[in-house]
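Entry for magnesium ion complex. Fields follow.
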Amino acid sequence: MVALGPGAPKISQSSMTNVVAMHEGRKRVGDRARALLASPDGCALFIDIDGTLLGVAPTPDEVCVPAGLVSLLEDVWRGLGGAAAVLTGRRIADADRLFSPLSFIASGVHGTELRGEPSAPILTLAPPIPASVVQAMNNISSLAAGILVEQKGCGVAVHYRNAPLARQALESEVAAIIAASSYDLVLREGRKVLEAVPRGYSKGTALLRLAAEPPFRGRRPIMIGDDVGDESAFQAAEGLGGVGLRVAGEHFRPEASDFGGVADVRAWLEALAEALAPHKAAAIG
Ligand SMILES: [Mg+2]
């Protein structure tokens, strides 16, 4: 049972059903995440996409956006007075395509793209990755069938989900390409993906930048993610007195996670939207 403190918002019957389901083992949501539902006022949400909001697919373009997820995210966003942002390794335009017609405050390509308001232009914070690096990455795609190279503006990614045995060779090749480039790049590893991105940018730098401005400023940041690229944002949120919530998967073991998987994040978001609902009218104005 969620402990409700004095003055905490009332949780509706459907929200309570979600919470009960979490406790009965049909869903797995950890104590830290459940405790946040008792007093969501004053929180700001930062959330990853792949492996957190959406299940992982063979290729980035094949992910499935479940029915009702977009309207649920809109409810959460409104309930938090607009203090919700997506932090993703994808390009922001790609996230917009997934969640159309909704546009979020967002950071893309590991902190190199930023949009501080849903309707504002997307800022590119780093120079585009040199064509020579993209070409070199394309050349190593011939190492094995199934390797996919994705040019992402300020970064370039090599996906090997469909060629898992090529991982070691790809790591060596990507490291060599980064070392040979005069552009200051770093290697970021993700779920069956290796990315070359500019040094000095991360989801953590994006969170800190967003958290310093309205509507996030003064709120307690909650970061939810599933991968090594989310670690910097967990650190940033925790450094601001917030919390980093881990989703189990290929990076975090279930026993070290706050959510068992994507379905549990969804159930928690539904409970959060319900808990925030009494404030919706005031938030919308
Ligand atoms: Mg992820």
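NOTE: The radius of gyration is 19 Å.
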